[in-house]
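Rve domain-containing protein: structure, please.
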Amino acid sequence: MIPVEIGVQSPRVVHFTEDNNEEGLRCILDLVEELRDKAAIRVVAYQQRVNRYYNKRVSPRPLRQGDLVLRNSAIADPTDTRGKLAPAWEGPYKINRVLLPGTFKLETLGDKEIARAWNAEHLRKYYQ
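Here you go.
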């Protein structure tokens, strides 16, 4: 109770009975599982809406094993200080294998494998 309700009786205080309170708490306890299920359904619906909103702006990059790609030179060597007039993309490289969707192992055209894996975000398809 707040201090004002001590001097001025509110409908909540006037109509309070111990039995009604216990009965109300038991009803709420019976409905807890249903409330949790409704909340879980709302969470899933919200996640699907966010996913749809995000994915409608994503452009797919269909890269497969054997494709030729260019890689972002700023990501390849972040310590490189060649300046702003240096080329932004280097390559071409060949996709050696697909590790996960969007993650690739590259090799040079001389079949020498590049040590690290590359994300599709930092690759661009090379057209001959």
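Notes: The domain at 68-125 is CATH 2.30.30 (SH3 type barrels.).
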